[in-house]
Amino acid sequence: MLSLPKSRFMAIGFLEALGIATGMAAAASLPGPAIPILSQTFLVWQLVFSAILLGRKYSWNQIAGCVIVTAGLAVAVGSGSDAGQILSGVAPLWPVLMVVSSACQAAASIMKEFIFVDAATRLRGKSLDIFVVNSFGSGFQALFVLLFLPFLSNLKGIPIAQLPSYLMHGAGCFLNVGCEGAPLLPLLYVITNLSFNITVLNVVKKFSAVVASLVVMLSVPVSIYILSLPLPFLPEGASLSPLFLTGSSMLVLGLAFYYIPLPSKREAKTD
């Protein structure tokens, strides 16, 4: 562990924090349905960065599978919205910032995969614990997010001098001072988020960052379906349109397409 360059974890934390900052800035000025759709450029950036940083080459069915997954998710998430007018009246800066946010997050995920690959050589075949990557990456991410707080508060029109009062109010809300559901809901979120991050890192370690993204994309329509049900603190359910089912089917089809085994060149020559 000591032989691993800490600068890589710092770069991961910086990229993730920058992705959060730019994403939050863009999300404040974008219509809701546009946010998850623009975020799907994440997978495209991953393919680009993995080819550059890891030297990966993807077959035509893998690229096609990623395209189908992205299109399916866009259809599922954007169902019920007018795609032609979804960005009408929005300055071009905000969609660009959302795409930049996805690029930063994608670069960070590929760097994590690179760390796992490089660690096998540096640690002489020993496996790098995912908790090491998660802890160092999250630590640097938290540090850079704090450094970006003045920038984020300025975007929301909050003077820097008022930041301490906002933080105190947030801490009070966490301790259930005038906030319903606290601290149970925040703690559940933290536990779920940690479990999610560890699971995704495990997929990155065993497979690749692109595969992890495809799995995460599969969870999006599942999450939308669950949130459409009447749940505690979310009592009103919602009906899902046929486009949602179409997009979900496309997503599953894209995942299957990505994993279609292709015959090797030797087998092709033999045939």
Automatic annotation (TrEMBL):
Keyword flag Membrane: yes
Main location: membrane
Keyword annotations of the record: Membrane, Transmembrane, Transmembrane helix, Transport
Similarity comment: Belongs to the CRT-like transporter family.
GO-annotated cellular components: membrane
Record-linked InterPro entries: CRT-like, EmrE-like
Compartment(s) where it occurs, according to its Swiss-Prot or TrEMBL record: Membrane
Pfam families documented for this protein: CRT-like
Full protein name: Protein CLT2
UniProt membrane topology term: Multi-pass membrane protein
Chain ranges passing through the membrane: 37-55, 62-81, 93-111, 131-152, 184-204, 211-234, 240-260
